[in-house]
């Protein structure tokens, strides 16, 4: 690397030009520079020698590059050294290659001269005339080869001189482009600040337009709250993707009269879209409030937790050494957590379980798909303000949510793997459905943002129809990790497949863009049958609501600028399938928990000793005793490391003795090949609820 590159490398980089390379034994290498030392271990002595040779060559090259940079940096200011190194990077590479060619040329000249001497000596010997002529011809060819190599080196020198002549022109052009970019960034930042000021002024203005205007303003305020970034917010200029289809609302009366005359790629019957005969909910507020009342729990549960303490902590001071690492391997204080484990966050996906209860009543598989799609989107509604990190579950940790009497379902989660972290989840509902999944969280910290990628399929099966749905989650991104207000976004696509009827639903989560004219956090999709015929259009946002519109006609529209032909769907009026519950009062001081989230860590009797509710560091954090929680968290993690080291020692011992070692096996789940996806997945093998009835937890490990 050049010095300019070295100045921008991440912490942990060693400058080879001043490094010391040493060997301890037949397999170990010690690489040190100042106060930083790395111990490397090779698999064999041969491999160690290969690494030492490669490191020595790299060190020699680094020393040569450092000397070259010190030679040509004396007449320039230090501030421009980085720009010069960046601009002349190509020239430095060419110079290095030219040096290699010069070395090869010297070797050719040396060996060519020796060859000519040998040939001259052969000519002086008394040989047949024919042999002498052949030797003379070889001598002439060697001379031509040396002349050609000299010409090649001279041509390379001419090329390098030409590149150096044009370097100043390249520098001026690049400097102009940089200045233009800086001016554009400053203009955009100023516009963003003005836009934020206007939004705040608009929300702060007193409502004087009557009751209708007040209601409208309150909706806008709740929508703009999540994007209320401060002045240092980073905006992303992602290009706005053109939608793959256009939706036009049709007149139901017109189509009822002329439905038989409809033509196109897909047709539907408006008569089927009857609110009284359908399980779809209307979009008016009264029916929504009635559905909320029906879902009130019969058992009285807590409605608040202790307020979050106001502890200040510099995030960057901890995260700067963690760039590029797995989030699960970073030792984090509880200051960045919320008092829930990942198992409880996984269970929180069931907050809108009533969507699946309604889906059971659907006679049409495409109509049922609409409710499943709305359910898959609803699981993200709680994340819009939830930027804190849940606790990483300990290996063998479990979490149960028994709502069989209240809502008809019971849920069980277990941490089945620690590296990589994986959790298995199983939900049974006596109202006619079963859901199961194994989720592995892959996460990367990239300096400015954190990407969270859930891996694994979610399975949902309805008992009466046998419809089996499978889908996967999208990527979550936490922005403004270093500077600004944290905010979260969901992006990607979800494909939901009914493996019995082959119906499909394609949902697209549009990433947030400051320059987009679309509604933030937008989700769109189309439900189609096995023949590819579209039946419903899904639309909404992942933080507020999802609507469904029945397609009565589809046709091909105009061709877009990218050359793609858009499909125009003529639909009936949309119906609201799902709408987010309002957050409880004082939610901003309770980690923005929903009503369900407030009850997830509520102490309960008769749960397994491995249940997340009994985790001491999480309980201390919820109580506001963060310093004690940090100490307890370190104790639990060290206890888990000790168990892992003991397990590794047992595995090594078994290997030396030639015995099989099974390793860790989950308690309530077992690995099987999924017949639908063909993947290896942990599924519930039974026994937990029977053990709870008997209060027999003798098989549970001691993890707390």
TrEMBL record:
GO CC aspect terms: cytosol; perinuclear endoplasmic reticulum; plasma membrane
InterPro entries for this protein: OSBP_sf, Oxysterol-bd, Oxysterol-bd_CS, PH-like_dom_sf, PH_domain
Coiled coil residues, start to end: 174-201, 626-653
Pfam families per UniProt: Oxysterol_BP
Gene Ontology process terms (BP): lipid transport
Ranges of compositional bias, category Low complexity: 204-218
Membrane topology annotation: Peripheral membrane protein
Location of the PH domain: 1-60
UniProt protein name: Oxysterol-binding protein
Native organism: Chauna torquata (Southern screamer)
UniProt lineage: Eukaryota, Metazoa, Chordata, Craniata, Vertebrata
């Amino acid at each position: 690397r050049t010095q300019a590159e070295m100045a921008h490398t991440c912490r942990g980089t060693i400058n080879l030009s001043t490094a010391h390379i040493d060997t301890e034994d037949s397999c170990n290498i010690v690489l040190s520079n100042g106060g930083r030392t790395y111990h490397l271990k090779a698999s064999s002595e041969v491999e160690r020698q290969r690494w030492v040779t490669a490191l020595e060559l790299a060190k020699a090259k680094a020393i040569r590059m450092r000397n070259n940079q010190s030679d040509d940096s004396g007449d320039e200011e230090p501030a421009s050294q980085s720009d010069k190194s960046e601009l002349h990077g190509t020239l430095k590479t060419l110079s290095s290659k030219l040096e290699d060619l010069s070395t090869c040329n010297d070797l050719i000249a040396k060996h060519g001269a020796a060859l000519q001497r040998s040939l001259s000596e052969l000519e002086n010997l008394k040989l047949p005339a024919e042999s002498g002529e052949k030797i003379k011809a070889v001598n002439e060819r060697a001379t031509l080869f040396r002349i050609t190599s000299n010409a090649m080196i001279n041509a390379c020198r001419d090329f390098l001189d030409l590149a150096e002549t044009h370097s100043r022109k390249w520098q001026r052009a690049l400097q102009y482009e940089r200045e233009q970019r800086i001016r554009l960034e400053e203009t955009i930042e100023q516009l963003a600040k003005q836009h934020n000021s206007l939004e705040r002024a608009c929300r702060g203005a007193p409502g004087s337009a009557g009751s209708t205007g007040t209601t409208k303003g309150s909706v806008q305020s709740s929508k703009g709250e999540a994007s209320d970034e401060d002045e240092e917010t980073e905006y992303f200029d992602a290009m706005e993707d053109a939608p793959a289809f256009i939706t036009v609302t049709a007149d139901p009366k017109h189509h009822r009269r002329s439905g038989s005359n409809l033509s196109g790629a897909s047709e539907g019957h408006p008569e089927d879209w009857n609110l009284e005969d359908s399980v779809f909910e209307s979009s008016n507020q009264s029916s929504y409030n009635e559905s909320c009342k029906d879902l009130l729990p019969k058992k009285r549960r807590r409605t608040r937790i202790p307020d979050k303490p106001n502890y200040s902590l510099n995030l960057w001071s901890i995260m700067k050494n963690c760039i590029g690492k797995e989030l699960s391997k970073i030792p984090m204080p509880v200051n960045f957590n919320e008092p829930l484990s990942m198992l409880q966050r996984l269970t929180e996906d069931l907050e809108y379980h009533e969507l699946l209860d309604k889906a059971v009543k659907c006679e049409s598989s495409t109509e049922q798909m609409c409710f499943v799609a709305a359910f898959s989107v609803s699981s993200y509604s709680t994340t819009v303000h939830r930027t804190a990190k849940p606790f990483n579950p300990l290996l063998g940790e479990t979490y149960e949510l028994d709502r069989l009497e209240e809502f008809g379902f019971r849920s069980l989660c277990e941490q089945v793997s620690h590296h990589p972290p994986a959790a298995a989840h199983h939900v049974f509902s006596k109202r006619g459905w079963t859901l199961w999944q194994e989720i592995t969280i892959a996460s990367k910290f990239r300096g400015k943002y954190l990407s969270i990628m859930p891996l694994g399929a979610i399975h949902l099966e309805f008992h009466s129809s046998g419809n089996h749905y499978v889908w996967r989650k999208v990527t979550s991104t936490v922005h403004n990790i270093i500077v600004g207000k944290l905010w979260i976004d969901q992006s990607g696509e979800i494909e939901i497949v009914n493996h019995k009827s082959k119906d499909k639903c394609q949902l697209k989560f549009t990433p947030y863009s400051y320059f987009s004219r679309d509604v933030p956090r937008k989700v769109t999709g189309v439900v189609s049958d096995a023949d590819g015929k579209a039946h419903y259009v899904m639309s909404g946002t992942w933080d507020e609501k999802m609507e469904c519109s029945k397609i009565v006609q589809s046709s091909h529209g105009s061709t877009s600028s990218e050359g793609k032909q858009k499909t125009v769907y003529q639909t009936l009026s949309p119906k609201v399938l799902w709408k987010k519950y309002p957050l409880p009062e004082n939610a901003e001081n309770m980690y923005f928990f929903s009503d369900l989230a407030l009850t997830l860590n509520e102490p309960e009797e008769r749960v397994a000793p491995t249940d997340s509710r009994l985790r001491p560091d999480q309980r201390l954090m919820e109580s506001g005793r963060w310093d004690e929680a940090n100490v307890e968290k370190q104790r639990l993690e060290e206890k888990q490391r000790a168990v892992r080291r003991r397990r590794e020692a047992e595995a090594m011992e078994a290997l030396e003795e030639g015995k099989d070692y099974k390793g860790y096996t989950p308690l309530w789940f077992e690995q099987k090949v999924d017949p639908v996806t063909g993947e290896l997945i942990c599924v519930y093998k039974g026994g937990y609820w029977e053990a709870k009835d008997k209060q027999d937890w003798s098989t549970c490990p001691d993890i707390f």
